[in-house]
Amino acid sequence: MQIVSIHRVDRPGSQRYRGCYPHALSFQQRGLLAFVAGLFVCFGSNAASMADELANEVKYREQLLPLLRTYCYDCHGAEDGEGGVSLEADDTAAKLVQGRDHWMRALAQVRLGTMPPADSEVMDPASRTRMIELIDELANAIDCVQNPNAGKVTLRRLNRAEYRNTIRDLVGVDYAPADDFPGDDVGYGFDNIGDVLSLPPLLMEKYLDAAETIMGEAIYTPPPPELFELERSPATLIGADKFNVRSHLVMSSNGTVTLQFDAPFSGTYTLVLSLSGDQGGDEPVRVEVTDGRRAIPVEVKESEPTDKTVAFRLGKGTRQIDISFLNDYYVKDKIDRNLHVHHVKVSGVEQRSQFVSSPDLPVTHRVLLFETPGNDDEFVDAAKAVLGRFASRAYRRPIGKSELGRLVDLASQVHENGGSFEESMQVAMQAVLVSPYFLFRVERPRKPGPDGVMPLINQYELATRISYFLWSSMPDDELLRMAHRGQLRDRRMLLEKVGRMIKSPKASRFVDNFASQWLQLRNLEIVQPDTRIYRGFDDEVREAMRVETLMFFSEVMRNNLPVTELLSANFTYMNETLAKFYGINDVRGNEFRKVSLTGTPRGGLLTHASVLTVTSNPTRTSPVKRGKWILDNLLNTPPPPAPPNIPELEKGKLVGSLRERMEQHRSNPACAACHNMMDPLGFALENFDAVGRWRTRDGRDEIDASGSMPDGTSFDGINGLRDLLTSQRSEQFVRCLAEKMLIYALGRGTEYYDKCAMDKITADVRAHDYKFAYLIAAIIQSDPFQKQGYREP
After folding, report:
1. Which parts of the sequence belong to the DUF1595 domain (predicted)?
2. What's the DSSP call for residue 698?
């Protein structure tokens, strides 16, 4: 059925205009569509979806199409679209959805104010706002009621920071992998994105080495038994002088000689005597060897030197062993029974218990091996208890019976081969640390139910998502208990737990990992301002800049302040070094403390030297970098890449002040499209030099920090820019922060179907005065965080 026909008319002043009559849909047609839509609603969910599609078609025809014809089709017609972009070809709401990619690029240009171009029809602010809303709504049209896709997260390996934190919380050992492990790739601005966290063979080798090192430090095992060896000639035996000593000792009558030595440890000592005998009579030569407590009889039947071995359990210290000839027999000129001692050797092996017990054991040892067997019969039960708890915490879920059985079998093999209980646990725990269930955040694959609804992830998986979101580490025992009791979806209990988590010292990891990457503070380590121009900047100041921003972010988070305070707060954190660098008095000492900024031009993130330094060049400020940083990180409207073959500002033949040179640069139409949006934002920060210090002049030039956006909005300096962002653009900033945080929390980039979740998150935060904890809670309670969706082609 053809619902509406579009007529081509010519409008005065337009070279080519594909227009329509003001009311393309008649009153009767609109009423019919409304009636049909109402009928569809009555037929249930599928019909409701069809009704939505019809409503979108009406919205496209009646509201968006007139705007497109007025402002877009002159350049982006069906056949000759500039830049290869033909918007007119998508002549229905359904085609708008199918061409989402280029519509999103068009939307970005409209948001930036770079489209329509300056030489086209002037778009008033109300029309621009309405076009943005309509394109966003129609191109991203999804049913937020009927099972929106929650998105699929790629099986995600722990990154280096998460690995280190998890090892510390699980084992109690601070193992720093930074120097050994390959660096983590970055996606969507963060290094915890599943799609880019690969597992190269080299890294697997590093994991094996790390597991051995970590468990060797965590669990004490005694060193290998000490060995002792001593060789003596028979002549050195005490009492040997009473007998005939030639090349060897000849005991021609009953008597005793004594071996004396210092035993270095308690253990088993083996005495090897090389003996022979002159036989005679009806019995062989008989000898007795004793340590004073136990006597061992030895018969010597051989007439040639033969080794006789006896063993004693001796304590540490000076010890003596008596060697006695017992049955001398002599008949003159006929029989002479004698004992010959040719050589004496003693060796010892330190005797140690297989079960270590000492009050001096490391804390990690006592915590991990909370149960030890008293004897071999108790080994398996103790191993099950120890390994069951360790592996359950490492895998972030209860360990299965068969999984535990394999670990206990491994430990038993080590024990059967002579290993101690501690050594057996070391090996089994090393196996846990190289298991995929530890190295990866594994979630059970799920399929939609009969109604198409994607099921929720289980409570243990949810606990893992929460803990790695806020702590970059494994769940603590409280989170695991809440998961076991099914309490993590109780809003009241969740909010209470989130409140405790963001006040925990572990929350500093969220600050270090999320805030540092969101604000690009990690680049502060590599920027090199020219210290001949910017005197006073050094590594101490560099570090103070970083600490200031992270402590400021932490203050807003831990005290549950509105997230808009990140832009407008009139306080910060400083020590004496940073305060002097800023030119602020009355701050003494190396300790950072909260400092009021009342009466100064500073306030909020935009005036932090860390941000201002990473968005500057070594020898001058960069309004382009600063403007782009604001668009990227505060407004989530990144400009497109610069066109090819456009010279950099320094390389072009430009003269005058920085502002004048930028204006010359923008005279190139290819540059103006993006710079008209970036430059005004960057120039608002020109009163801050390339290392973030306040100034009123740039060399001989007076600073002009005024700016005007393509939509006509004007402002002057940092105060004007801050007012713009916290009033007219505050909702955009909150949505930007929410989306950046959702990307970090999920470990994947956001897609068009996340719009439903983003709308709900933003609305929930708005309803709670933009408080930080409610932003975190809203993300945790969102469908993408709570469910496992699917990856769309």
Report:
1. 383-443
2. E
User: Considering 441, 458, 488, which residue would you say is the last residue of a domain?
Assistant: 441
Question: Between 117 and 171, whose confidence is greater?
Answer: 171
Domain hosting residue 327, numbered range: 227-350
Q: Which residues contact 395 (CB under 8 A, 6 or more apart)?
A: 432, 435, 437, 438, 442
C-alpha 442 chain-centroid distance? 15
Q: Report the predicted TM-score, pTM, of the whole model to 2 decimal places.
A: 0.78
The answer to whether residue 724 is domain-embedded is yes
User: If you write DSSP's letter for every residue of 437-504 in order, what string do you get?
Assistant: HHHEE--------TTSPPPBPPHHHHHHHHHHHHTSS---HHHHHHHHHT-TT-HHHHHHHHHHHHHS
Helical (H) or strand (E) element with 665: helix 658-666
How many domains does the chain contain in total?
4
Confidence of residue 23 (pLDDT cuts 50, 70, 90): very low
* Rounded Cα–Cα distance for residues 325 and 298 (Å): 10
Q: Give the percent of the chain with pLDDT over 70.
A: 85
Question: For the purposes of burial, counting CB atoms within 10 Å of the CB of 68, is it exposed (0-12), middle (13-18) or buried (19 or more)?
Answer: buried
Residue 628 belongs to some domain of the structure: yes
| Cα–Cα distance for residue pair 61/141, rounded to 1 Å | 15
Do both 315 and 378 map to the same domain?
no
Angle between helices 491-503 and 539-558 (to 10 degrees): 160
Query: Is residue 612 in some structural domain?
Result: yes
- Greater confidence (457 vs 652) lies with 457
Cβ distance 742 to 761 under 8 Å? Answer: yes
Please give the angle made by the CA atoms of 715, 720 and 726, to the nearest 5 degrees. Answer: 115
Do 282 and 403 have their domain in common?
no
Local structure of 113: helix, strand or coil: coil
Comparing CA positions, the residue from 477, 449, 475 lying closest to residue 461 is: 475
Per-residue pLDDT averaged across 324-353, rounded?
89
Closest C-alpha among 422, 421, 428 to residue 406:
428
DSSP string, 134-181: HHHHHHT---SSS------PPPEE--HHHHHHHHHHHHS-----TTTS
DSSP 289: E
* 8 Å CB contact between 549 and 515: yes
- 550 with 609, same domain: the answer is yes
294-334, pLDDT tens digit by residue? Answer: 999 999 999 999 999 999 999 899 999 999 999 999 988 88
Helices (H), 491-619: 491-503, 508-510, 516-518, 539-558, 565-568, 576-582, 609-614
